[in-house]
Amino acid sequence: MHSLHDRTPWLALIVIGAGIVLTLFPVWIAFTASTLPPQAIARGDLLLPGAEGAATYRTILFEGARTSRMAAPPVSGLLWNSLIMALVIAAGKIAISVISAYAVVFFSFPGRMLAFWTIFITLMLPVEVRIVPTYQVVAGLGMLNTYAGLTVPLIASATATLLFRQFFLTIPDELVEAAKVDGAGPMRFFLDTVLPLSRTNIAALFVILFIYGWNQYLWPLLITTRADMDTIVIGITKMIGAGDALTDWNLVMATTVLAILPPALVVLAMQRQFVKGLVDTEK
Amino acid sequence: MRRKVIFRNRWLPYLLLAPQLGVTLVFFIWPSLQAVWQSFLREDMFGLSSTFVWFDNYRVVLADPGYMAAVRRTAVFSVAVALAALMPALLLAVMVDRMLKGVAFWRTILVLPYAIAPAVAGVLFLFMFNPSVGVVARMLTAAGVDWNPRLDGTDAMILVVLAAAWKQISYNFLFFLAGLQAIPKSLLEAAAIDGAGGWTRFRTIVLPLLSPVTFFLVTVNVVYAFFDTFGVIHAVTQGGPAKATEILVYKAWYDGIIATDFGRSAAQSVILMIVVIALTAVQFRYIDRRVQY
To answer: At what angle do helices B65-98 and B103-110 cross, to 10 degrees?
Structure first.
């Protein structure tokens, strides 16, 4: 007879160990490269960190990478742009989705289904399938190279609206009736009952949407032409240039580490909400 | 599905919907209609006037050997990314599921790449596989492999597939693990008592019960490979060398924004739109079935 856990799972430990190494190795190498002098990187001595880290990070954060081969703006500004973009997109998507789901679930009005399907259809229209006309609309509205242009066009969210709608449908009728008996109007009920009940859903969505906003690529590439409006992810690829041996990899990798850190910290700090958000948004 | 108890208000629901519908109409619906409209137009060489040409742009795009090569390339790329992201994820999930302790800890580390942007994953791999300074590239060269993704199209394709898949493994792993942990342990124990070994249990019980999750993940991974890997391509190879890694989304962007051939880019966009609609429909069919269960 076989049992399910009959011996020390050596095979499992080996496979998981290999998985951990494959997961962390690229990030570890980026970190060590960011602390090493360029000569060490050229020699390929990358396994252990060096002592140049503080100087390298100070340089790219506050002065920018200004070498003979590139002139990148200070990374602190790029981090700020990414932070604004991620926060505004996450907060904006949550805010407009929670109120539109509330309208669709708690009211009956002409055009209700039309509104619902109009929101739903955005699932099928990612930026990637309408690149040029979307750029033209944003340009026509004078929103190129602005924070509004970076964020507002992305804050419609079918996923978040569907998630809140599903949750609102589970709120018991008795709660609504009780509120009505107490003379509470729809906005009072929304603020006093529905929003507090939605806390865990909002937190879970926030993690996913923060990462979504931070990691945007095609959108900021289209909307910004000024280097000081770049996000950090765009900033990195601009620093690489041709990606040859002449690239200042210590500077590029320091920027890469800084680009990974904020979303990684959000995932680590909000692990439970992250897993819930990931599973919920795919329903 | 509707609620029984609702509020009555003539204008409030419209007010609540206004921001979402406004953004949707201006930045989603209108540009999409524009894409369809532009796909039927051709601009003169100065971009001053345009004429309605019916399906000419589609005919030109579909007759272009360059476009059909990009279609085949995208198919190869998507299948490779999906396989390279799904297989290791399933293996890891099965192993973590076998652990009695520390599941949350292993999961925490293994899902980290989800937080990393596709373009950043691309940069990490570009560095590791750089022929002159890359750690892995040095090992390959030492092992006698002639590795140079900047000159060799196949090497470049392998590089972008690895980078794109590495980032996606974490996502697949999380869903496989959730699927595995939802399988009743009593079922597996009963099979074990009947003398079924580990591999037999996996093949006859676990895999069939995982098939809905697997099907769902296949569509998610294909969508990811088609649309979300633009950053990987743009950061790592710019579609090169000699277009060896130019996938459809990258080509639509390049033809529209860099080469400013709006009509042909729009025709490509509309073709991609049909792909997304088909994939989304497949995904929702699956979800419908899951709701019925």
So the answer is: 160
Tell me the torsion sign for CA atoms B12, B13, B14, B17. Answer: positive
B31 and chain A: CB distance < 8 Å anywhere?
Answer: yes
Residue B106's domain is classified under what CATH number?
1.10.3720.10
Rounded to the nearest integer, the mean pLDDT of chain B is: 88
Query: Which chain B residues in 212-271 lie under 8 Å from chain A, judged by CB atoms?
Result: 216, 220, 227, 230-231, 234-236, 249, 252-253, 256-257, 262, 265-266, 269-270
pLDDT of residue A7: 59
Distance from CA of A231 to the nearest CA of B (A): 12
A130-134, A212-216, B177-181, B209-213: which is most confident: A212-216
Residue listed under structure tokens 């060896």? B244
**Closest by CA position to A198, among listed A86, A61, A60, A101:** A101
Within a domain: B29: no
**Total domain count for chain B?**
1
Task: Write out the residue range of the structural domain in which residue B182 sits.
Answer: 65-292
- State whether residue B182 sits within 8 Å of chain A by CB: no
Count of helix runs (H) and strand runs (E) in chain A: 16, 0
pLDDT, greater one: A150 or A129: A150
Specify the pLDDT at position A210: 96
Domains and CATH numbers, chain A: 81-283 (1.10.3720.10)
pLDDT at A25: 95
What ipTM was assigned to the predicted interfaces of this complex?
0.91
